[in-house]
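Bench log, entry 3. Co-assembly request; chain sequences pasted below exactly as received.
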Amino acid sequence: MGRLITSAFANKLTKVLYGIIALALGLAAWFCLNILLSSSAYSEAGRSTADLKKRLAEEQAVIAQADRMPVSSGPSGLASVASFQSALEQAARAYGCAITEFTTSRTPSPFISRYSKAAPQADSNQVEVKLQLTGTARNVIRALQALTSLDIPFELSAMELTRQATINRDEALLNTSIELNIVLPPTGGP
Amino acid sequence: MQLSEASSSGHAAHKIKSIDVHANLLSQRLAEREMLGRSVRRKLLAILVALGISSAILPFLYTRALAISTKAGIAEQENTKLKSELAKVREAAKLVQPRIKSHEMVAKCRTYASAFFGQVVRLMNAPSGQVALTSLRADVIGGDVKLLVKADAEDFASAEEFLRQARAGGSPEDAGFTWTRRSDVLKKGGVSFELAKKATIGE
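Structure output for the full assembly:
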């Protein structure tokens, strides 16, 4: 035993000790680095999961909202212009008014809302309609109001009521010029 | 007679001295061996301590790293699953978007039409028996409706009453006469006037 304990042996022991320490520190550092990286990845994944769940809930809410809406039986595209004209004729007949003019623009143009200062909606179009109705003020307004119950969206842009003849002290026959835009929302979807 | 220590050349002769160092060398070697032994023992102890600490800490760190790495992997898998689910749901939502837009558009247009007719009817109902409307024009732009009414009144007071009624529910500066002039249409000494009104009915 005494012969084994030499300074060379002591030096070897020093090297072994440093080797063990270096190896242990290296492994510990590697594990710590892994822990840090995995923790960071885990937190990032957690945040991403929360964000994805939120977006998923939003999209599902949109689908649920659409499911709650009744399936529209109204016409779409340019067919809605013909339907609007037909509904107007019915309403005019029902309220004793006469349609003296009904003209529409030949082609749809991009929809620009008269009721909003926001930028135009690129995916919708509009068809300009000019019409003239003759009848008493009450009946003209009623006939026009009846059109709002249709599933055809339209925006009134101008209306001019001019007295044509006086019926009695309370009522007069009016000539009503109306300008409106029938909105053609984007088609597609169930 | 005393002999001189000097040699014939005059130099003193060398004295031969000897020291016994055997005892000192042995004790020094023993001390060195003792020191070496202590150093080796210390290093062995340090090795044992290092091994002990390593065997206590490294498995803990390894387990922890493995656990967190596994959790991160599971979370990543869940994310991938959610992403694919979101893509499917988004596609489905895209398909129903036109329906929603169409319904929203119809609802919005109904609200606007109702507001428009509300303004027109309010103005048509405003005149008293002493005022007769000649014409009424309503124009909508940028969410504002501009109403222009031409009417005849039996007297200026009736015209002013009509203006007061037209202002109801809005700011006084939003309605006013554009012009007034004498007119005998309804009654001698009556007035003819034009009234302008502005109201916000859109966004």
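DSSP finds two helices and four strands in chain B. The mean pLDDT of chain B is 86.
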